[in-house]
Structure formats: C-alpha cells, structure tokens
Specification:
heterodimer, A: alpha/beta, Four Helix Bundle (Hemerythrin (Met), subunit A), 4-stranded antiparallel sheet, 23 helices, B: alpha/beta, Rossmann fold, 8-stranded mixed sheet
C-alpha cells in the first residue's frame, strides 16, 4: 500500500536528553521512542517536569543552551533533526513544524504589533517556498526525464519532448488557476462578510464601518471569467460601489434598508458564483498551449470533459504510461540494490557483533556509500532510515572516539568526588555525587548494532511492500507532486493577502474586532487573547506537523473548546499531524488518536486513545485518571502522594515506585521493560509480568470505566 | 439550607473601569459554611467580583454586607440619581422642584453614609476575609521566608508575642501538610503544589470566616490539583470555612461547590445549587458552557456537540429587558417575561 510509506511523518527513537546544571546532570528525557503518523494526533500526557516539553523542543531544535543530547534520533523527511544545521532548521521551523507555546507572554515580541507578528512568517516563508518549489519541480522533472530516457534508451528524444511539453503548459495552468483561486476565495470571504453584516443590521448591532469596506473590497476582487462575469460583474460593481455612500446616509438613522437591499443583491450574485463548478485548469492549460485555440462554448462541465478528453488523447495517457514504464524499470533496479544492501547489512552486523568497533571502522565508508546509492531519487517521500544512516554511523563513531579520549579522566574525577563524599558522610553530612558523564563504549556499539538492524528490518519490510505496490499510483503521485510544486512556483503572497489571511485567522481563533486588534501591541491583550494570537501565528504558516505545548491550559472551557475544534478542523482539512502536550485528560480524550503517558522522562504507557482510557495498565495512568474530578464524582479525590523524583539522581528502578501504592520489591530494583497488552498498546510496569500478582485498578477508575461503557451502550441502543 | 445565616451579601455590585463595565449589577449571597462557585469565561468579571469584595478596588456602586454589616459601598447609583434629578429640575414645575430637592438631599445623605461605612477605620471585619491567589509563584514574595510570609498578617494585626506567632505558624503549617522545617525556607525551594499550600496557610492563619479562592488550582498539575482540592475540602469541614471559589474548570467547581453562579460579560446570568445547575441548565450561555466541558472518555468526546452562544441570536431584549427571576426555588436565571414563561414550560415537560 502506498499509504503505509506515507504514514510515518516523524519518528523519535531512543531519544535521551539531559541538562547540565550546577547541581549535576538532570536527566530530562530517558530513552523514549514514538512515531507520529500522517494526519493523526499523538497526545503526550504527564506532569510538569516529566520531559514532555523537552521532547517537543528537541523536535523543533530549540533546546536550551545547557541541554545535552545524549543519544537517539528524530527522523523527519529523510533528515535526522538532531544532526542538521541551524540553517536547515530555519527552513523547517514554522513552515513544516510549528509550535504553539505554553506561555503566551514570553512567546510574543513585546515591541512588535500583532499584525506584523502574524504576517512576518507568511511573507518570509512565501518567498522561500516559491524558491524551493522551483527547485523541487526542476530536479524531480529532470530526474524523471533521465530515468525515462534510461528505461527507454531507444527513444530518449521522445521522453525529452514529453517533459518539455509538461514544463511549458504547466506554467499556463498555474497562472489560470491562481487567478481563479484568488477570485473564488475573495467571493467566499465576501459572502461570509455580507451574511454577517446583514445579520448585524437586522439586529441593529452594526457599528463597524470598516467591516463594510472590507466586504466591498472582497466583492470587487471576485471578477474572473469562471467566478463573477458578464452581467453579474456589472451589477456587483454598481452595488458595491454604492455601499459606502448609502451607509453614510443611513448610519445616523439606524435604518439600513437601502444598504441591506444592496447587500442582499450582492449575496445572491456571490452565492451563484461560489456554487459554480471548478474548471479543470490542468487540462485547460494544455489545451491553451498546445491545442488549436478554438475554445468551446459549452457549460463548465461540458468544457471540463472536452479538455480532459483532449489532453488524455493527445498527451497525458501516453506520458503517464511512459512514466509507469520508467518507474517499473527503476523500481526493479533499486529493489535489487536494496536486496544487496540487506545482505551487506547482515554481514556488517555479524562483523561488528563478533569484532570490535575498531575492527569495523574501515568498512563503514563503503557500507554507507552502498546505502546511499540504494535511495531511489524518484521517491516522493524520502526514506528517512536510509538517508540518515550515514550521519548516524558517523556520529556514533565520533562518540566512540570521544569516549576513548575522555572516559579515563572523567572516571578519575568521579572516583575522587566519591572519596570526598564518603569522608563527609562519615562526618554526618548529606552529600550526593552526580553520576559520571562517561560514555559507555559498549552502549555505543550496541547502538550501532541497533541502527544496522533497524535499517535491515526496514528494507526487508519495504522490499516486500514494493513487490505488491501499484506502480500506477506511484505515477499519479509523481505527477501530483509536479503539479503541486508548479503551482507553488507562481503562488505569491502579497502584503495585502497576508493581512487578509491574518485577519481571517484572528477571527477563526475568536478575537473580536480583528481589524482594530491587528494594529495593537501584545501588552494590550489579555492572557487568553494572547494565547489565541500565538495559536494564530502557529497556524499561519500552514505547517506539516503542529506541536501544541499545553495550548489551552490558560483558557476557559468555551474558548478551549473553540480552539480544540479549530485544531481538529485544520487537522482534517490539511491532513496535519499533531503532537499535543497536556495534562488535562478531558482534552486528551477529545483530541488524541494515540496517547503516550510520560513520567520522569520515560514513556510509561503507550496506546490508542480508547485503549489507554478504557483499559489503562500502568499505575501512574490509574492515578492520573482517579485524581481528577468529573461531573459525577462526590467522594474524596485520590491524590497522588508526594512529588516527582529529582532527576539529578534518577531512581534505579521504576521511577513511579515511590508514589505507587501497588509497588513491588522489584519496582525499586529494576526498570520494567515494555509489556505488550495488545499490538498497539504497551505499558512499562512489572504488574504486567506473568508472575506478578493480579492487581485491579483502583475503584475510582473501574467505576468510571464501567460508567463510560454503560453510557456508550445506552447511546448505541438509541 | 435556607435557614442558614447569610455571611456575605453582595447587592447590585457594579465595578466600572472608565467605560468598561467589568461587573454590572451583580447580586448574590453566600451562606455560612457553604462553598459558592463563580464560573465564566476569562474577562467576564469573576476575579473583579472577588477583588471588589476584599476591597482591592473601590466599587462603583452597590453594597457588600459581611455578617450583616456593610463593609463596602459605592456611590455611583446615588450620584446618577442626583444627576437625573438636576436634569429634571431645569424643566420641572415649582412643586416638583421641591420634591427633587428633597431627593437630592436624601441621596447626599446616602453618599455620606456609604463613604462612612466604606472607609471606616475601625471596620476590622475585613480581616475575616482572606484570599488565595491563582499563581503561587507570583503571589509569594521571593525575599521572604515561609515563616515571614505567614506571620506577616498576624504582625500587621498587632500580634507582638513571638511565642504566639510561632505557635500559630507552626500549627497552620502542619495543618496544610507541610512540616516545621519548611518555615525557614524561601518560596523557590518548593514545588508548585507546596507553594499553593503556603498560600493557603497564609490565608488560614488569620482564622478567617470567608476565603476567596481565585482559581487556586488552575496553575497546578493534575496530581497536585487533587492534593490542593482535598486540602481545601478538609479545611472547610474542620474549620467551618465559607469559600467563594472562582474557577473556570467546571468539573472542579461542580465537585467542590454547593451553589454556583454563572457570569457572562459582567452580569450574573444563572445561579443555582450545583446539582440543579448541571441537571437543568436554563440560560443558553450556561448550556453552551456545560456543553464545552471535556470529559476523559474518548467515545463520548468524539460525539460531543458543542452548543454555541451568541447573545444577539439567543435573545430579543429590544423591548422587554431581562432581570434575575427565580424559575424554581433557589434557581435564578437572567431572563425576560417571554423567556421566563418558556423556561417554566421546559421544566414541566
């Protein structure tokens, strides 16, 4: 299946982060792994200090200066985010990965107007996107041409001609579509404004003349042969231009009959305009450039069919067939390459496993080269595991070298400190020594082995999938990719467009009077309003991945519900992947597809939303569920006693053991592994060990689950 | 419950900041020993109401009675009456003028009385009202130890005997779940939950009758939230405290409060016992508010439909102005005649 390869947007593997502080090294994130799939929401739940914010900041590359990334990787779009440079991050941040910060006070610039802050990124990224689309379009099409020529070496000239035609009419297509989109969007906006104004006037609550002006501006931007044209254009123009004069006369008397009748006329025209079918600009573009120039005079639907048939007959069918042929040819080649890589990896694994890192070192270069060669340049989604393999290997080797160089002196220092501490302890003073920061060379080797194993498994899986893959679907993907990038090339974001978009966003996140607010400074906003601005800024750039770090904690329920709905809608509309960090379990139930419960820098439970809520397995999850009141609770709340552990001296066993009523002896001694409850659900607690005594969750949790199930069934019956 | 003594009575409270009507004609009373919850979205005036009660602001108009004694009063309404009378005076007949003069004189007396009560120095009952603030970090002085923070109020009240202060401070520290050793430390050495406990201790040490808790748990983690709620609950039962609980987390308010008042843009729109309010919400804003509560149940959450509230669409107040009416005993709703009839119909159905 094609989707499967698209699926994983972000992969975090064995991430470990600590902070250097005066008191020693604080281990904030301890070996966590998770995947984020396309179009899903992953919720990370936990108390403050459990490492959830640190994880998200690592994804965005904005860790504090004293942070040390001890290991692991974060894979996104063929890159390891822990290893790329600041310049590369600059391209990702906001555009691809955006973040809604927890504290609105510190995430806004106090001396910049709100409007400027909202549009700044849009304007900056607009240019960058144009550039990158141009580049993507060019390289991918060139690559396609090359592959096609190689696959069909007898007729290389033909594939060149095909690609050239594509380049030519694609420009026309985007130009037409751009003009249409602008007009259509303006029509939608104007319609919304007009409806709103009519409502306000009816209720005699109309105050803001600038809203009327805005509606007029939108209405005057809708002229396009496929949106508002002919008689409608003239009528709309007349009505819109007369609006401002009418309102001047009527403003005082509060009797808006003339304005309202004009607005109603405009509404009728616009409603007609937005219900029209969208023409097939892609096919039309081809017809305009390569056709005979006789534009047919049917309805939009008829024309669409005509253009479509025309392009299919004369060009597209053959082109796509050739692409598919080329893909089949290149896929076979790369499949062979990957198979060879799998064998090479198997050998490398055995070599390293039996030998040492030193003995393995000389062969790394050749292996990495072979892996890099096996990456198919026609892949739309980069194979992250393969692309980052070289970087991973190199960084492991560098770490190994550093360990060889510094371990001895660090160990000596630690021993010295321990001796001192013992002396002080003898005097009755409490004195703890931070663990040494030596690098475990065995662990480095194990990590290298794991990386090799991971790529091998990944390739074996991919090879199997590739065999069943629909080559035709891949062709569509490539043509769609080319089309997308071609439209990105002409997409220009002007200041006015950015302003309109910003105003719309401000309205969407529930800021009243956005036009007035646009020119205000952050200090003029209340906390909730500031939070909404921060959310609007994050959404402005149309990101791929949205990280929400407690976005609604400071907001009240109605606005919270509004914002959550907004995020949900955006997620559906743009197939956004969301990482949602919060400690409010109600919000989690609303948003999450999957949940990771974090405690003391580790994920303790991981599963789909239903599994975690209806069948929680970890005592910490139980405690979280039972400590919050719901609308039915009357008894005393079961608070979790104590506070989270000091992560400078992480506990040896399960970190939650000290606050856990169900803790067993082994919990204090050894860290529990991940016990599977179902294929998608695991929890790290010894209670799931087959030999552990059977323990039932606290009654508050079981009762609530029973209630939820009863409610579910009652609803099903109705 | 109705026989219980009224501890705090708020009458037509208005608090205007320039033209911004933060609180507009709000009336309610809190009975001894009960927890009164105040909910509403941010900016609706619930915090302002709380702060007006402990006289952090001088109120614009209205009266606040504590234990039957007026502790705060505003002069706005009297001034308005005087202005209106003067306006009328210009055109009124001679007989009417005399009447108006009497009205003005009476209103002036009222103003004098209000000012006397409001600024009375001997009026010490205000120390019987204490406040717990939202942000435990910002509300504690970082330069004062926990002991100094808690003892400050006692010292201001004129307590000079160190042993009495010591005893009281240590007792209250233990009462809120901290230990004696914590007294010498500074706020930054504590976790969020412990800091909020210090805030509670500072309020409780004055042995107040009424505590105004302004979002005491919304800045805390879930696990800590439960600790603080349990603490407040215990204190309430043991010390017989009355609490005005201001919050926006409705699950917590429902759990903790006996009666709940819902505020919207400076007005109280609905007031009822907490069970009654959740069982029969009347006002469209209350319904919108209740429909927005997220519950920890994915299946329910995915199907939850949120009601929207737009005051312009929901009510037609052009002719018939709304006021607070009692729909069923103890259940007040802000509505006009037509709505009042409809609500009663709904209740019967």
């Amino acid at each position: 299946m094609m989707e499967n390869r698209l699926e994983k947007k972000l992969q975090v593997r064995n991430l470990r982060i600590s902070f250097r502080t005066n008191g020693g090294k604080v281990q904030a994130v301890r070996n966590i792994s998770f995947d984020l799939h396309k179009g899903e929401t992953l919720a990370i739940v936990g108390e403050s200090g459990s490492g959830k914010s640190v994880t998200s900041k690592a994804v965005l590359g904005i860790l504090a200066g004293n942070a040390i990334v001890e290991g692991g990787e974060i894979l996104y779009d063929g890159q390891d985010l822990l290893k790329i440079s600041e310049d590369d991050f600059y391209r990702l941040r906001g555009d691809k990965i955006a973040m809604i910060f927890q504290d609105p006070l510190s995430s806004l610039n106090p001396i910049m107007k709100i409007g400027k802050q909202l549009t700044e990124a849009m304007l900056l990224k607009g240019k960058a996107r144009q550039r990158s689309c141009k580049e993507n379009f060019k390289t991918k099409l060139d690559q396609l041409e090359k592959t096609m020529a190689e696959a069909n070496s007898a007729n290389a000239a033909k594939s060149k001609e095909q690609c050239d035609t594509f380049r030519k009419f694609e420009a026309k297509h985007t130009e037409l579509e751009q003009a249409y989109n602008n007009a259509y969007e303006a029509a939608e906006e104007a319609l919304e404004e007009v409806k709103n104004l009519l409502f306000l006037m009816e209720k005699d609550a109309f105050k803001d003349v600038s809203a009327l002006r805005q509606a007029k501006d939108f209405a005057l931007n809708t002229f396009n042969p496929y949106v508002v044209t002919g008689d409608d254009e003239a009528a709309l123009k007349a009505d819109a231009n007369a609006l401002m004069n009418d309102i001047k006369a009527e403003m005082k008397s509060h009797n808006y009959s003339a304005t309202m009748s004009r607005l109603q006329n405009i509404q009728v025209i616009l409603e007609k305009a937005v219900s029209k079918t969208k023409p097939d600009f892609f096919a039309m573009g081809y017809f305009m450039v390569c056709g005979d120039g006789n534009v047919p005079s049917g309805t939009v639907e008829q024309n669409n069919q005509f253009y479509f048939d025309y392009i299919a007959k004369n060009y597209m069918d053959e082109f796509e067939e050739d692409i598919t042929k080329a893909i089949v040819w290149s896929d076979e080649r790369y499949l062979e390459k990957r198979k060879a890589v799998v064998t090479a990896l198997e050998n490398a694994y055995a070599d390293l496993d039996q030998g040492t890192v030193e003995s393995f070192r000389p062969s790394v270069g050749a292996l990495c080269k072979q892996v890099n060669d096996s990456v198919d340049p026609l892949d739309i989604v980069k194979d992250s595991a393969a692309c980052t393999f070289e970087g991973t290997m190199k960084s492991f080797l560098a770490r190994y070298d550093e360990g060889l160089r510094t371990n001895k002196s660090k160990q000596a220092k630690y021993d010295r400190e321990v001796r001192q501490a013992e002396k002080r302890a003898a005097k009755g003073k409490d004195y703890k020594v931070a663990m040494p920061t030596t690098i475990d060379l065995e662990l480095v080797k194990e990590n290298m082995l794991a990386a090799i194993q991971h790529l091998k498994d990944h390739y074996i899986e991919r090879n199997q999938k590739d065999a069943q893959e629909n080559k035709r679907a891949k062709t569509d993907m490539i043509t769609d990719y080319l089309k997308d990038n071609a439209s990105g090339m002409v997409l220009k974001i002007t200041k006015q467009a950015a302003r309109n978009k910003a105003l719309k966003l401000m309205e969407e996140v529930g800021i009243p009077e956005p036009r007035k607010r646009y020119n205000q400074y952050p200090f003029e906003f209340s906390g909730g309003m500031r939070q909404r601005i921060v959310i609007a800024i994050a959404l402005a750039a149309n990101p791929d991945i949205l990280i929400c770090d407690e976005p609604t904690t400071a907001l009240d329920v109605t606005i919270q519900a509004q914002i959550l709905e907004l995020i949900q809608n955006l997620k559906k509309k743009r197939n956004l992947s969301v990482i949602f960090i919060t400690h409010d379990l109600g919000v989690v139930a609303n948003m999450a597809d999957r949940i990771a419960v974090m405690y003391a820098g580790k994920i303790v439970e991981y599963g789909t939303s239903e599994e975690v809520f209806y069948d929680p397995a970890h005592p910490y999850t139980w405690a979280l569920l039972s400590s919050m009141p719901d609308l039915d609770s009357k008894d005393k709340l079961e608070a979790i006693p104590g506070t989270p552990p000091d992560m400078r001296y992480p506990p040896k066993g399960d970190a939650f053991a000290e606050r856990n009523r169900y803790a067993m002896k082994i919990d204090f001694e050894r860290q529990p592994p991940e016990f599977r409850v179902s294929p998608t659900h695991w929890a790290a607690t010894w209670l799931l060990h087959p030999e552990a005594p059977k323990v039932n969750p606290p009654s508050a949790v079981t009762e609530r689950i029973a209630k939820m199930k009863a409610r579910m069934e009652a609803e099903n019956h109705v | 419950m109705s026989e219980q003594q009224v501890l705090l009575k708020v009458e037509n409270l208005c608090q205007y900041f320039k033209i911004n009507k933060a609180v507009d004609d709000v009336s309610f009373d809190i009975k001894k020993g009960e927890v009164f919850g105040l909910v509403g979205e941010s900016g609706c005036g619930k915090t302002t109401t709380g702060r007006s009660i402990i006289k952090l602001y001088d109120i614009t108009s209205g009266n606040i009675y504590f234990n039957g004694k007026r502790i705060a009063a505003g002069t706005g309404s009297y001034r308005n009456a005087i202005n209106a009378a003067r306006e009328e005076m210009k055109t009124a007949s001679p007989e009417r003028k005399a009447e108006l003069k009497a009205i003005i004189a009476e209103q002036r007396e009222q103003i004098k009385a209000a000012k006397r009560d409001h600024f009375a120095k001997e009026n010490r009952s205000v120390t019987q009202i204490q406040m717990i603030f939202q942000d435990p970090i910002a509300s504690l002085d970082p330069r004062m130890t926990v002991y100094e923070t808690i003892a400050e109020g006692l010292k201001i009240q004129g307590e000079k005997d160190k042993s009495v202060i010591d005893e009281k401070v240590y007792k209250v520290l233990e009462r809120v779940g901290l230990v004696r050793e914590h007294a010498g430390r500074y706020p930054h050495e504590f976790s969020g939950g412990q800091r909020q406990r210090i805030g509670v201790a500072r309020a409780v040490v004055m042995e107040p009758e009424l505590i105004i808790a302004d979002e005491p748990v919304s800045a805390l983690d879930v696990s800590i939230q439960a600790q603080v709620i349990n603490l407040l609950n215990d204190l309430r039962h043991e010390l017989g405290l009355t609490i005005l609980f201001i919050a926006h987390d409705l699950s917590v308010v429902k759990y903790f409060s006996d009666r709940i008042g819902v505020m919207y843009y400076g007005k109280m729109v609905e007031l009822a016992t907490s069970d009654e309010l959740f069982a029969h919400p009347m006002h469209p804003y209350t319904r919108a508010l209740l429909s927005a509560i997220p519950l920890p149940d994915p299946a329910y959450e995915k199907n939850r439909v949120r009601e929207k509230y737009n005051p312009l669409e929901a009510h037609d107040y052009t002719v018939d102005k709304p006021r607070m009416r009692e729909v069923t005993p103890g259940h007040f709703v802000q509505c006009n005649d037509a709505e009042f009839a409809r609500y009663q119909q709904e209740l019967k159905a």
